[in-house]
Amino acid sequence: MRLTPGPARDVDLDRVDLFDLDLYTSGDPHPIWDVMRAKAPLHHQVLLDGREFWSVTRYEDVCRVLGDHREFTSERGTVVTHLGVDDVAAGVLMTSTDPPRHTEVRRPLGVKLTARAVKSWEDAIRRSIVRFLEPALEGEPFDLAEKALLLPAIVTGPLLGIPERDWEQLVQLTAMVTAPSDPHFHLSSEAATLAIAHHELVTYVTDWVKRRRAAGGEDDSLLDHLMRVRAGDAVLTDEEIALDGYSILLGANVTTPHTVSGTVQALIERPEQFEKVQADPTLVPNLVEEGLRWTSAACNFMRYAVNDVRIGGGVIPAGGAVVAWIGSANRDESQFADPHVFDVTRNAKAQVAFGYGPHYCIGAPLARMTLRIFFEELLQRFGSIELAGEPQHLRSYFIAGMTHLPIVAQKRKMP
Predict the structure, then answer these.
(1) Tell me, what's the pLDDT at 81?
(2) Residue-wise DSSP of 203-222
(3) pLDDT at 415
């Protein structure tokens, strides 16, 4: 979807279809979200097949929905592609589990992913990113969005304990889960794409665990650590390990590539911002937070109301599905001044691109460090970046991103 919105326009809220894939592939949802925040902060939509959901678009309401599991449960599913079908892994899969069980599993994993813990991986990540960027400096068109899909696997594959020969396959499968209607990943149908990808990913982790157990011993990889996690008084079952490993693979792969390509596109369109942060590298952390806010790669998350809940001037009935639109919350003018302006000097730390509350992204410290290193290295090496073709947007209403961003970069001339 377009990250720089077009002009404000009249929007008929009774006819808005937030499940229209064209809105995200070639359209512009930001003017719609602007009107929803102003006039319908709680919006109800019924799909043609009878499924229904409520939407919240204001920053404060999005944080409330994501932050209060007593009002809004994760245990029926959290991803809009599963709307209307309760998650069969509820109560087992970490992302579809509420506290206290969620906290019991998350806490020991989080120990491995604190900012202090991931600091030890910085040099290895920097070397990987330098190798990733080198082909872009040969002066030929370089499709950043296409290449960046593999970037998280390059960075996190060794940390997870995933061999390089499997990276491309796993990236393809995780993309199939999050964008099952995109022609790059779509199989015979959206349902078939989701089912096949889910099965293959869970099977991969299951087989990985079997091989590790057969080999004996321990290593320091994240998946190996998952095998030793205790929730309450018991270690995780093989089913829990497989499902949580699946969730970790999804989280590692699906958002960072689109934050990278969307932020680079913003810098290409605003060369004065590129020059500003290049002249003052201390602005790189600001650039990362603004890029996260601007791209909001995880465009939304879903919850279900536990009881009737009054929010946004209306009521979500008990059992109703509610979609919290991250992409809208991060452009809420009550939280971010001039929200449709990309500004590398902005303090955007309040952005909710990583979610909010109990399910705040467990890998956020690693993602932030990866993005910081990426832009440090890009700004040090690239003198200029230009588009070499039209960007192509991902066909998904869950992940806001690109499948193609052809660029041409020139090496920076050092004094």
Answers:
(1) 82
(2) HHHHHHHHHHHHH-S--S-H
(3) 67
Q: Which of 289, 399, 397 is nearest to 55 (CA)?
A: 397
Strands 300-305 and 321-325: antiparallel
Give this prediction's pTM.
0.95
Sign of the torsion angle spanned by Cα atoms 381, 386, 390, 391: positive
Q: Are 222 and 209 in contact (CB under 8 A)?
A: no
295 to 154, 273, 284, 401: CA distances (angstroms): 22, 16, 16, 8
Q: Of the ranges 193-197, 308-312, 377-381, which one carries the lowest mean pLDDT score?
A: 193-197
* CA–CA gap between residue 169 and residue 191 (Å, rounded): 19
What is the identity of the amino acid at 78? T
CA distances from 159 to 18, 71, 99, 371 (A): 37, 36, 27, 16
Whole-Å CA distances, 200 to 78, 114, 193: 20, 29, 11
The mean of the pLDDT values for the chain is 92
Q: How confident is the model at residue 337 (pLDDT cuts 50, 70, 90)?
A: very high
* pLDDT band for position 234 (cuts 50, 70, 90): confident
User: Which CATH fold would you assign to the domain 21-411?
Assistant: Cytochrome p450 (1.10.630)
Tell me which H or E stretch contains 295.
helix 284-295
Residue 1: name the closest of 327, 368, 365, 293 by CA: 327
* Closest to 352 in 3D by CA, of 330, 379, 378: 330
